[in-house]
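Q: Two folds, back to back.
A: First:
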Amino acid sequence: MIEAFSIEELQHEMNVNYFGIARMFKAVLPDMRDRGDGLIITISSLTGRLVFPGFPT
């Protein structure tokens, strides 16, 4: 199934689902640390724990 997706499509998925979250953390954590307070709640789908080969996330 990996042949069904272009490298650009896979890069987009990683940018949104992985690097996007990392960028958000890096953006908000310094302010939270300075204030000494804050809460980050992440919400994920079932596909974060159960993966079907070739199933788009």
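A: Second:
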Amino acid sequence: MKKTAYILFFVFGICSITSFVHAADKDNLWKQEISLGYTQKTGNIQSAELLSNYEGIGKTDYSDLNIKAGVLYSSVNKKMDGQKYNGSVRYAPELDETNCFGFGKVEAEHDRFAGIDYRYVPSLGAGYWIAREENWMFSGEIGVGHEYVKYTNGSDDDNVVLIPRFFCQKSIFDKAKLSEELIIYPNLEDVKKYRVRSEARFTNPLSDAFSLRVSFIDEFNTDPLGDAKKNDTQLILSLVYGF
């Protein structure tokens, strides 16, 4: 049953994305960006961190499509201490030309040092745009998804999760933008277990193509594997190229 559901979800997603990209290409509403951040320290402690992210954002009069992918690698004294991969695809059509919308989303990630071989979360839900202007955007939504986690020790976890999400973005200092995305993943089978992900961004344009971005990501898990910490944070300074 689960296999059939995933196949149907995948086929629906491919068809939706194909039709969206065709419409967005006609209206030239497809925007993409690549960000790159790198830090290095030498001396008594040698450390390095490399991260890269891709984001494709498309908008038409009736729907939004958002594709994300990210990679993070870090080391201390030439020994790896961080390895993360993540990606998501989210398609959100409007409902009857109102501020209401539905959405389908698939998330996947790998975090070696949190003991996560892979995690995937397909979900469906609905939301509402409280504000949707160029200078001010705010939305709230709620979805239901199936979360499957395969751990590096060979164990796994299989749960149904509720997924409330809040997003806001405000233009400041003329062309700069400040945004916040908050996603909560409460476990419907065990209310004491949940995950929270918050990402705050400040993006300041340097030119038509390049921007400087400061991001703060805070991830919390009430039930991490083994000795992994419950809270994981990242403060990122990156150069963004938009095209």
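Q: And?
A: The domain at 2-242 is CATH 2.40.160.40 (Porin).
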